[in-house]
Amino acid sequence: MSNIVAIVGRPNVGKSTLFNRLLEKREAIVDATAGVTRDRHYGKSDWNGVDFTVIDTGGYDVGSDDIFEEEIRKQVQLAVDEATSIIFMVNVEEGLQDIDHEIYNLLRKANKPLYLVVNKADSAKEELAATEFYQLGVEKYYTMSSATGSGTGELLDDLVADF
Ligand code: GDP
Ligand code: MG
Which three-class secondary structure state does DSSP give residue 76? Predict the structure, then answer.
């Protein structure tokens, strides 16, 4: 059985930046099905020799201020249905928001391995501020700077160990 890791979260948290980093030197998979790649991007990655598929969600990111909650909900549900593991990304720059709580309420029902990633933790100051997200109550908690790659190793070690 193949392992499928979905990256979900509200717009602008850094999902695509992590996706592109995971796909380094690899090609994104272009799905011939109309509409599919507009909403979601698929790619192959591996960590320590363990292969997995990554799904980047959020074709709605363009003009992110007027995103309908319903569209985010739909995307999250599609990813959850398809994935075997879920990376739930939030960002410390903008802090914990209502939509993060709503997304988490959808994700917790999935009963799939769930990894909370607090992104844009570029420095020690932000690492500290990221503790705000403890209140979500997600057991597997990581801080990351997907722009620099720091923190990705810890996440991937745990992710593939749970496959
Ligand atoms: P998405 O909408 O969740 O897919 O977010 P993107 O990956 O498109 O990133 C949104 C913006 O955040 C872009 O301008 C990125 O360059 C920036 N960004 C992503 N990751 C980081 C990070 O770790 N630190 C900082 N400072 N900026 C980041
Ligand atoms: Mg994106």
Answer: helix
This model of the complex carries an ipTM of 0.99
The two three-digit tokens of residue 74, written as one number: 């739909």
Domain range for 8: 4-161
pLDDT of residue 10: 87
Distance 77 CA to ligand 1 centre (A): 22
∠96-99-102 over CA atoms, to 5°?
Answer: 110
Q: Tokens standing for 154?
A: 């810890």
Q: Which ligand is nearest to the CA of 64?
A: 1
Phi, psi of 8 (to 5 degrees): -125, 160
Residue type, position 55, single letter? I
What is the reported pTM? 0.91
Ligand 2 centre and the CA of 56: distance in Å?
7
- The mean pLDDT value of the chain amounts to 87
C-alpha closest to that of 93 among 148, 133, 142: 133
Q: Give Cα separations from 129 to 8, 12, 104, 122, 138 (angstroms).
A: 21, 18, 20, 11, 16
Specify which residues 6 forms β-bridges with: 55, 86
CATH number for the domain including 83? 3.40.50.300
Q: How many independent structural domains does the chain possess?
A: 1
